[in-house]
Amino acid sequence: MDTADAPHLTGLYPGLYAVAYAAGGAAGPTLLGFSVDATSWSYMMLNAAVFMVPVLALFTVLAGRERNARRTIAP
Predict the structure, then answer these.
(1) Dist. CA 23–CA 5, nearest whole Å
(2) Over the stretch 11-42, which tens digit does the pLDDT of each residue have?
(3) Which of 21, 47, 49, 23 is nearest to 35 (CA)?
(4) From CA 42, how far away is CA 34, in angstroms rounded?
């Protein structure tokens, strides 16, 4: 199944996915480690929840933009 809009974009989506996967795997533990060092180990779950709120907000905004873009492009 090809989800690319144009043939020249076919390799873009797997590449973006790989970059996001690698960046998330590196940035997530690093940011949580810095926050644990700054506060204490007993607040680790609270720190993770605090980091999760802006990430979920970002995903919500990006999903809304994608939905709006598809409405304007679709016939």
Answers:
(1) 25
(2) 787 888 899 899 989 988 898 888 888 888 88
(3) 47
(4) 14
